[in-house]
Design a protein that fits this description.
Blueprint: H1 13-21, H2 28-38, E1 51-53, H3 60-75, E2 87-91, H4 94-110, H5 115-125, E3 126-128, H6 136-139, E4 141-146, H7 158-167, H8 178-188, E5 189-200, H9 210-219, E6 221-227, E7 242-248, E8 255-260, H10 266-277, E9 283-285, E10 289-294, H11 309-321, E11 323-324, E12 333-336, H12 343-346, E13 347-348, E14 359-363, E15 379-381, H13 397-405, H14 407-411, H15 414-418, H16 432-436, E16 439-443, E17 445-446, E18 452-454, E19 459-460, E20 464-468, H17 474-482, H18 484-493, E21 502-503, H19 506-509, E22 513-514, H20 522-534, H21 537-548
Parallel strand pairs: 1-2, 1-4, 2-3, 4-5, 6-8, 14-19
Antiparallel strand pairs: 5-7, 6-7, 8-10, 9-10, 11-22, 12-20, 13-15, 14-15, 16-18, 16-20, 17-21
Helix pairs in contact: 2-3, 2-10, 3-4, 4-5, 17-20, 17-21, 20-21
């Protein structure tokens, strides 16, 4: 729900109007689903537990909570007045506070409670205030539930934005303020306490969610992520990319990944809850939802993968069983080729342009198109010595004359302005040892995994990523990386471009898990190498499945 403003921090009238008209309210069956998944049910003595809703809007969650507390009071033979401190909800807008109080009181009256009790409870449950700026003592909770605000931080007035950043360490960069709601809610949870939000899932993958992901993986248990992009979850049609997330204040345990389809509704939600609560099958698939249990959630602060629940379960399993591709034990490294800052000057096909030993053969993306390296003659006009220093131009008169010819363009570059005495340097240094090494090259953008072997002699351009290793046979590793198994890691983490093109950047290649090279049988090594030589993706995948101990790779 989008909303802002408190008494002590300013909010422009125009923004308040936009916020008020941009509110999005959660359907009742979604609220029921979240509370069921959390175990906030009438068989428990709910009067002894504290539930907090950070931004209650018009009361969609509170109405359902009031009914559950009513039932709990009757099961446990309590007067409803015992529930006066069981709930605390906040909102910034007078209108929402009044409407939520009315809705709570009306629901309690409908459940048969006296007017005085209903009104007293409604007034005590719902307060006006900014949840992010309340004292920690106000927040302590066994449950935090709701649909937190969706507002870009830069759209918040400067004084409020500064207060939010000060209060919430996770709200770095161009964050959405819902990130702060997650942080404050998680910090408020009592031991074994649980958070249940329906919210945009962008924080799981975007840069602005990095600090929040770190907080969750280091200190909490990610229990469930139910993606609901196509589900009619709100009273109004919005494009919010929602997901239900359940996070607990405990050590990471079993996690559920699920993806709901357009047909997912109240009846299907009850079936899903029943599967979640039962200690039964590890997967749950119906026309309305796919789900899988995993022993734990994905570690680390980098983006969490996006894939079908079944594939996520397989990726998590491989994450547990195998080492990362980049590994000091095997001397395997992922890197990117050289950035010059002025390709028009530093790249040439003229082999007589400068002194012969100042021309370094370069591998370009176009050299890799066929899957076999076909060098078209591009060279780097190389200003670096083998020891990593810039050459003395006095020792290379033709090189000096060439650089001076382009001196104006070279000296305008940022790297040259920063170090004017080194005006003819490229952005990156040349590692001359890399030229001689066997390496796998990956074009930055491609529809499928496309490893290409350089047996030594070329240096990669910055649109190529490379892998080198001290122990891997690069043809065997090439076959493994050609497979759909390895591609599944990149596909789950990488940014997809228009038309489904993947970005094969170092950060995504480093996500790939691989077996110990010595653990691969001679026959499987031969099969992988042969598949790589023939560019046979199916054969590579068949061999990779054996190596990874998988029966199949789920869609």
């Amino acid at each position: 729900m989008a909303r802002t403003s408190t008494e002590d921090l300013s909010l422009p009238e125009s923004l308040q109007e936009a916020v008020e008209h941009g509110e999005v309210f959660t359907r009742a069956w979604i609220v029921e689903l979240i509370l069921d998944l959390l175990g906030y049910t009438a068989d428990r003595d709910l009067c002894t537990l504290k539930l907090v809703e950070p931004a209650c809007g018009s009361g969609a969650f509170l109405a359902v909570v009031a009914s559950r507390i009513t039932e709990s009071c009757r099961v446990h033979e309590r007067p409803v007045s015992d529930a006066v401190n069981a709930v605390r909800a906040y909102d910034l807008l007078d209108r929402n506070v009044e409407q939520s109080r009315f809705l709570v009181a009306e629901r309690l009256r409908q459940e048969g409670w006296a007017d005085m009790d209903a009104n007293d409870i409604a007034a005590e449950w719902v307060k006006q205030g900014d949840y992010l700026l309340q004292s920690n003592d106000e927040h302590r909770a066994d449950y935090v539930v709701g649909n937190p605000p969706y507002i870009r931080l830069e759209d918040v007035p400067d004084d409020r934005m500064a207060a939010y950043r000060s209060a919430c360490a996770t709200m770095g960069g161009r964050a959405d303020i819902y990130v702060g709601f997650y942080e404050v809610a998680l910090r408020s949870l009592n031991p074994e306490g649980k958070l249940g939000f329906i919210c945009a899932d962008r924080w799981m993958r975007n840069q602005y969610g990095r600090r929040l992901r770190t907080m969750v993986t280091n200190h909490f248990s990610m229990d469930l992520a139910l993606v609901m992009h196509d589900v009619d979850a709100f009273d109004d049609q919005v494009s919010a990319y929602p997901a239900i997330t359940l996070i607990s204040n405990k050590e990471q345990g079993e996690a559920v990944a699920a993806d709901a389809k357009r047909s997912f509704g109240a009846r299907q939600a009850r079936d899903f809850v029943a599967w979640c609560m039962a200690n039964g099958p590890t997967s749950f698939t119906t026309p309305a939802v796919e789900a899988a249990r995993m022993p734990q959630w994905f570690p680390g602060e980098n983006s969490w993968p996006a894939a079908s629940p079944a594939r996520l379960a397989v990726l998590e399993d491989m994450t547990e069983r195998f080492r990362l591709l980049e590994d000091t034990q095997t001397g395997t490294k992922v890197g990117i080729g050289i950035a010059t800052g002025a390709d028009k000057v530093f790249l040439t096909k003229d082999e007589d342009l400068v002194e012969e030993d100042r021309l370094l053969p370069m591998a370009m993306v176009r050299d890799t198109i066929s899957g076999t390296l076909n060098w078209e003659g591009t060279r780097l006009v190389n200003p670096w010595t083998a020891s990593g220093d810039l050459v003395d131009l006095a020792e290379y008169p033709r090189l000096a004359a060439y650089f001076e010819k382009h001196g104006e363009a070279l000296r305008k570059r940022y790297v040259a302005v920063k170090q004017p005495e080194r005006w003819y340097k490229t952005i990156d240094k040349v590692d001359h040892q890399l030229t001689r090494r066997h390496k796998l090259l990956f074009p930055d953008m491609k529809l499928r995994m496309h490893p290409v072997l350089d047996e030594g002699g070329l240096y990669p351009h910055h649109n190529l990523y490379f892998i080198v290793s001290d122990v891997w046979d690069m043809r065997v590793l090439g076959g493994l990386l050609l497979s759909r198994v390895a591609e599944a890691f990149v596909e789950a983490y990488a940014v997809k471009m228009r038309g489904g093109t993947l970005r094969f950047q170092a950060q995504y290649l480093r996500k790939i898990r691989v077996p110990d090279p010595e653990a691969i049988s001679a026959s499987d090594q031969a099969a992988l190498a042969d598949a790589f030589d023939k560019r046979d993706v199916e054969a590579a995948t068949e061999a990779a499945l054996r190596v990874y101990g998988l029966a199949e790779l789920p869609d």
